[in-house]
Amino acid sequence: MIDPELKTHLENIEKELVDLRKGTHGLGPNLMRGIVYGAGYIIGAVLIILIIGWILNIVGVIPALSNQVNEFRSALQRIGGPVK
After folding, report:
1. Rounded to an integer, what distance in angstroms lies between the CA atom of residue 21 and that of residue 15?
2. Residues 23-54, buried b or exposed e (16+ Cβ, 10 A)?
3. What's the whole-model pTM score?
4. Cα(59)–Cα(14) distance, rounded to whole angstroms?
5. Which of 52, 62, 65, 72 has the fewest CB atoms within 10 Å around its CB?
6. Is residue 69 within 8 Å of 57, Cβ to Cβ?
């Protein structure tokens, strides 16, 4: 015969396991969420690197990117007006 206190603890554990199983999703949604988060991190990192490089080029720290910045400025001028 099982101790009543032990039986109560085991029933509580079983209830918690059932609740955990209900709260989790399958492999598909978790995989998709991971792919989206990973892509977001990569896109964010690329944008930050591009913005920092552009700012450093404007300041004059990285003069090798001046052609790309000038092309970007001319594209912005064609689209929306003067860029300072």
Report:
1. 10
2. eeeeeeeeeeeeeeeeeeeeeeeeeeeeeebe
3. 0.47
4. 63
5. 52
6. yes
Longest dimension (CA), the chain: 86
Average pLDDT, the chain: 83
- Tokens found for residue 29: 């949604």
| Model pLDDT for residues 27-49, shown as the tens digit of each residue | 788 889 999 999 999 999 999 99
Residue 17 confidence (pLDDT) above 70 = yes
Q: How does DSSP assign the chain, residue by residue? A: ---HHHHHHHHHHHHHHHHHHHH---HHHHHHHHHHHHHHHHHHHHHHHHHHHHHHHHHTS-GGGHHHHHHHHHHHHHHHS---
